[in-house]
Amino acid sequence: MEQVTVLGAGSWGTALAIVLAENGHDTLLWTHRQDQADEINNEHTNKKYLPSTVLPANLRATASLEEATKHGKTIVVAVPTKAIREVCGELSKLLTEPKLFVHVSKGIEPDSLLRISELMKESMKPEQIEEIVVLSGPSHAEEVVLQHPTTVTAASESLAAAEKVQDLFMSQYFRVYTNDDVIGVEIGGALKNVIALAAGITDGLSYGDNAKAALITRGLAEITRLGVKMGGNPFTFAGLTGMGDLIVTCTSVHSRNWRAGNMLGKGLKLNEVLEQMGMVVEGVRTTKAAYQLAQKHDVPMPLTTALYEVLFNDKEPKQAVDELMIRMKKAEIDELR
Ligand SMILES: NC(=O)C1=CN([C@@H]2O[C@H](COP(=O)(O)OP(=O)(O)OC[C@H]3O[C@@H](n4cnc5c(N)ncnc54)[C@H](O)[C@@H]3O)[C@@H](O)[C@H]2O)C=CC1
Ligand SMILES: O=C(CO)COP(=O)(O)O
């Protein structure tokens, strides 16, 4: 049994805390909201994020970051990308010994263009970090809490750290593989949300299954193109954290990115969509970051660029699709090399 802290009591942090608590680990879930910590401790529910779930009795919550920091030998960071800097910065003021960090956030910071593990390293001191492991893959919280079979990947430059995280989380319904390709895993996890927004848009336009299959495969082509240029292993993009997560996010009604895209495709404006969602839609900020990365690395990313125009330059979704279809003729495979 290990002492583990999970930072962030949204749907994913809570679902992972349940997996850990059910595995017998002494798990403490941190939220920045006292009322939510009280609900988790007294009612054993987290209704805003997982309305039908009863939390295990051994799962405790706290609103004290100091208590949370002291508790875990392993600290799982499960806040949205935009909160990573702030939360890790606060953590850095409290850490007195090195910890094993696991992050599960799927994004890239616009402008700095840092991946999550890079952001974490920038926000804390090297001596405070034992190792960083990224846990990613096709895994909607709503299905994990139902104990439906789920497979993910733990990636780290340190195989020992990845295996430690594999052991912490692995259960009968939660299977964890290891990978040493942190870049590929982080890029795949972040960029699939961009394509999922686009898939939601084409569904909102009622364009059907051919369009969605095209988005998934051509989306993977452009994610791979960028990810390989940034140093990722091409095979990673065909795995759970690439193709696997792309499939689940582009096709599941649980996906907040797909749902947001669907509303955009039906004609709602971005601010109206985000107001209605009430949960993080990572793909919006990641579209900006991916657009900037494509320019920086001089990689053609037509789907990302089209989505950028829709989200930030008010292009009509139907016009964006029309323009994608009449682009210059291309070879399918040569473009990937
Ligand atoms: N929901 C899911 O099924 C999965 C989510 N993820 C990733 O996990 C990350 C977190 O997502 P969710 O839990 O789904 O989001 P969510 O929207 O359900 O919850 C986000 C949580 O973060 C908290 N938060 C926001 N800003 C904060 C701040 N500055 N300080 C402290 N806490 C703050 C919110 O209060 C909320 O509890 C995202 O990067 C997402 O892409 C990854 C895999 C699956
Ligand atoms: O990453 C996820 C599933 O693997 C969750 O996707 P959404 O953030 O779109 O809900």
Overview of the molecule:
By secondary structure, the protein is α/β, with parallel strands linked by helices. The protein has 2 domains: 3-180, Rossmann fold (3-Layer(aba) Sandwich); 190-336, N-(1-d-carboxylethyl)-l-norvaline Dehydrogenase, domain 2 (Orthogonal Bundle). It contains 15 helices and 8 strands. It has an 8-stranded mixed sheet with strand order 3-2-1-4-5-6-7-8, sandwiched between helices. Strand 4 (74-77), helix 4 and strand 5 form a beta-alpha-beta unit. The termini are far apart. The mean pLDDT is 97. The structure holds 1,4-dihydronicotinamide adenine dinucleotide (NAI) and 1,3-dihydroxyacetonephosphate (13P). Residues 8-13, 31-32, 49, 78-81, 83, 86-87, 104-107, 139-141, 279-280, 282 line the site of 1,4-dihydronicotinamide adenine dinucleotide (NAI). Catalyzes the reduction of the glycolytic intermediate dihydroxyacetone phosphate (DHAP) to sn-glycerol 3-phosphate (G3P), the key precursor for phospholipid synthesis. NADPH binds at residues 11-12, 32-33, 49, 106, 141, 256, 280, 282. Its main location: cytoplasm. It catalyses: sn-glycerol 3-phosphate + NAD(+) = dihydroxyacetone phosphate + NADH + H(+); sn-glycerol 3-phosphate + NADP(+) = dihydroxyacetone phosphate + NADPH + H(+).
Question: What is the CATH class name of the largest domain?
Answer: Alpha Beta
State the distance separating the first and last CA atoms.
47 Å
Strand content: 5-15%
CATH architecture of the largest domain: 3-Layer(aba) Sandwich
The helical percent reads: 40-55%
* Helix-strand string: EHEHEHEHEHEHEHEHHHHHHHH
Rg of Cα set: 19 Å
Bound molecules: 1,4-dihydronicotinamide adenine dinucleotide, 1,3-dihydroxyacetonephosphate
* CATH superfamily descriptor of the largest domain: NAD(P)-binding Rossmann-like Domain
Shape: globular
Kindly give the count of domains: 2
CATH topology category name of the largest domain: Rossmann fold
Ranges with pLDDT <50 over ≥5 residues? none
Mean pLDDT: 97
Structural class of the secondary structure composition? alpha/beta
Topology, number of strands: 8
Strand order in the largest sheet: 3-2-1-4-5-6-7-8
Major β-sheet annotation: 8 strands, mixed
Count the DSSP helices: 15
Main location: cytoplasm
InterPro entries: 6-PGluconate_DH-like_C_sf, 6PGD_dom2, G3P_DH_NAD-dep, G3P_DH_NAD-dep_C, G3P_DH_NAD-dep_N, NAD(P)-bd_dom_sf
Pathway: Membrane lipid metabolism; glycerophospholipid metabolism
GO biological process, one term: glycerol-3-phosphate biosynthetic process
